[in-house]
Amino acid sequence: MSARYIPSMVRADGTFCVIAKFKTAEEAAALHDPVTDWCKQWVANHQHWQRTAEEINIDKNGPWDYFAIFHGPPYVIKAEDRELWVRLDARVYSYWWRDWFAPMMVGLKSAFPTLKADGKLSFDCDEV
Asked: Which residues touch 45 (CB under 8 Å, ≥6 apart)?
């Protein structure tokens, strides 16, 4: 892949991370373990993604494997006061990372209504 097509969020080794930052309606610490467990279960239920090449305009049919792109399930890196941050680490840059991440975050917000819908994203892997 040409360097001009690699987004700035990608580190020199090809990896990247995304952090979803949520405000909460309750103490975030109370959500740490339930959110962690939910993320693990979501990945277990959605590890393989069957899409056809025509659906996403590429040359390869699925199934796609979550772990081919990501190191593991998202995990909580901050649960303080009324802030909850969830981080997802990627092994390699893939244009399709959003197609895993977006439905995961929609499901998370649905499962935990105390998460404010205005979650912000950060790609600063050193941020804590």
From this structure: none
Q: Is 124 helix (H, G, I), strand (E, B) or coil?
A: coil
Q: Distance between CA atoms of 16 and 14, rounded to whole angstroms?
A: 7
Amino acid of residue 108 = L
pLDDT of residue 1: 39
DSSP state of 34: H
pLDDT profile of the chain (128 residues), mean per 10: 57 88 94 97 88 55 79 95 94 80 92 85 84
The CA-CA-CA angle for residues 13, 95, 2, to 5°, reads 55
Measured in degrees and rounded to the nearest 5, phi and psi for residue 35 equal -65, -45
Q: Which two tokens stand for residue 112?
A: 């935990």
